[in-house]
Specification:
Helix 1 crosses helix 7 and helix 3 runs parallel beside helix 5. It is globular, with a radius of gyration of 18 Å. The relative contact order is 0.24. By secondary structure, the chain is mainly alpha-helical. It has one domain. It has 8 helices and no strands.
Length: 207
């Protein structure tokens, strides 16, 4: 029963952090709606969280806390990455050609999907803070024998969330047969990406 309680605690912490709509979730949501590489998208983001949470529990969270300059450079890299994705989303929203599901609204190439998923996870300081610092930091405080159970709960919820979000979003596909719906989604995503980029630059005290 103690192992179950520790596992549920890990899942609850993961749920409280991962459900906020950020850059990573927006990417998964868009791929799901477009029905482009849905399985690969969910799997890539899930595996990234597995690696990050495991690294955090192993002690990386303490390292980032000890060397705050690492967070500075991560913030810079993350701002550049999400701003670039925001520009792409804005270009799609303003594209004059008809937008339909046959024009590949999401990323279709497996390599591009994997790179984007890694980018939104590893180059996203917000995701790093949640997975490595918070989940890892709390997990590292658990007794040694309890850490695998805590990690199982946190990672298990991450897998469940990304797969549910990716495949659940596909149910919205009929709505997005209308070009206007794609434009609204892309404008919202672009605005979100630019806001995140600005917040990261502010975090790095560059603005």
């Amino acid at each position: 029963m103690q192992a179950l309680a520790i596992t549920l605690n890990g899942a609850a912490l993961s749920a409280s952090l991962i459900m906020a709509i950020g850059a990573q979730n927006a990417f998964v949501l868009r791929q799901g709606i477009a029905r482009q590489q849905v399985l690969l998208t969910a799997l890539t983001c899930s595996l990234c969280d597995l690696v990050l949470m495991s690294t955090g529990v192993a002690g990386m969270g303490a390292l980032l806390t000890r060397f705050p300059q690492l967070q500075f450079w991560m913030a810079i890299a993350g701002a550049v990455f999400v701003a670039g994705y925001g520009v792409l989303a804005l270009r799609k929203a303003l594209k004059p050609t008809p937008l339909t599901l046959t024009t590949q609204q999401g990323l279709a190439r497996p390599g591009a999907v994997v790179l984007a998923g890694i980018g939104f996870s590893v180059l996203n300081p917000h995701a790093i803070l949640d997975t490595v610092v918070l989940v890892g930091g709390i997990g590292a405080q658990q007794p040694l024998a309890a850490r695998p159970w805590f990690l199982l709960g946190a990672v298990g919820y991450a897998f469940a969330w990304f797969f549910t979000l990716a495949f659940g979003a596909s149910r919205l596909t009929p709505l997005f047969r209308k070009p206007a719906a794609w434009r609204v989604l892309d404008l919202v995503i672009a605005g979100m990406m630019f806001a995140i980029a600005i917040s990261l630059l502010h975090q790095a005290r560059l603005i």
